């Protein structure tokens, strides 16, 4: 009975994208590394505000235990609250860092995060990275690796705040793919990880697939390559994001 209640509790804490309109698509894949767990230290959320702007967060709390999963829930809920209160991207990151520092059990715990804002119109996305990996940009013609300038991860040097905004131009049919480093850190040989180039090759191989199928194929391919070397050894979260208008 207790185990069932724990599962119900974790399921209730999983993110549910809050899209007000049907003009934006947000597909997700979320895989905790811990056995029998539904939550992990990776977290994400998607919120569309009344002005049709879409706000996105993807983060990764260092570590793999239940404490990190609980902290990730705190951060996700705080981020959504900050969005609904009209805070800017930088203000949201400051709030997350303060909560992280106040709530972490270990001073060495940190969080990488990437914050995105999709303004209405679908022609750009504003990216702020706090120590997070890059992203994939999908278009009709190609898939490209984009590496926004990454500031310092949350909690490493509290208050340093060297984050900057990168504006990425979009075409009407473009999509953005975000992921945590559990995907690119997958071992594909005894001393080799998948890495950015390996992920890009997998992405191009599956580029004909629609959003949810695309990210499912990415994760499955990475896991298959890592299987002989212990499988995926870290939590994984992947998001596929884009405007639907004009597709």
Structural notes for this entry:
With 247 residues, this protein is an alpha+beta fold. It has a single domain, classed as PPM-type phosphatase domain (Phosphatase 2c, domain 1, 4-Layer Sandwich). It is 31% helix and 29% strand. It contains 6 helices and 13 strands. Strands 2, 3, 4, 5, 8 and 9 form a 6-stranded mixed sheet that branches. Helix 2 packs antiparallel against helix 3. The longest helix is centred in the first third of the chain and has 19 residues, at 66-84. The model is unreliable at 1-12 (pLDDT under 50).
Topology record:
Elements (H helix, E strand, L loop, with lengths): L1 H12 L10 E8 L10 E7 L5 E8 L4 H19 L4 H15 L7 E8 L5 E7 L4 E4 L4 E4 L3 E2 L13 E5 L5 E5 L1 H4 L2 E3 L2 E2 L1 H11 L5 H16 L9 E8 L4
Parallel strand pairs: 5-8
Antiparallel strand pairs: 1-13, 2-3, 3-4, 4-5, 5-9, 6-7, 6-10, 10-13, 11-12
């Amino acid at each position: 009975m207790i185990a069932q209640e724990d599962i119900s509790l974790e399921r209730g804490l999983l993110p549910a994208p809050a899209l007000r309109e049907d003009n934006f698509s947000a597909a997700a894949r979320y895989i905790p590394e811990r056995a029998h767990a539904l939550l992990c230290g990776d977290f994400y959320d998607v919120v569309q505000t009344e002005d049709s702007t879409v706000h996105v967060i993807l983060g990764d709390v260092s570590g793999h235990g239940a404490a990190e999963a609980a902290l990730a829930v705190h951060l996700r809920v705080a981020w959504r609250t900050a969005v609904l209160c009209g805070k800017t991207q930088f203000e949201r990151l400051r709030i997350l860092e303060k909560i992280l520092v106040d709530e972490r059990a270990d001073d060495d715990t940190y969080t990488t995060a990437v914050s995105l804002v999709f303004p209405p119109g679908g022609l750009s996305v504003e990216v702020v990275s706090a120590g997070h990996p890059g992203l994939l940009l999908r278009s009709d013609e190609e898939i490209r690796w984009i590496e926004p300038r990454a500031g310092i991860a949350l909690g490493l040097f509290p208050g340093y705040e060297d984050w900057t905004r990168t504006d990425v131009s979009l075409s009407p049919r473009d999509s953005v793919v975000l992921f945590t480093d559990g995907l690119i850190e997958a071992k594909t040989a005894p001393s080799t990880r998948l890495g950015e180039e390996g992920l890009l090759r997998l992405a191009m191989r599956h580029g004909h697939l629609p959003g949810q199928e695309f990210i499912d194929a990415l994760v499955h391919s990475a896991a298959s390559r890592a299987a002989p070397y212990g499988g995926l050894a870290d939590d994984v979260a992947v998001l596929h994001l884009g405007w639907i208008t004009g597709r």
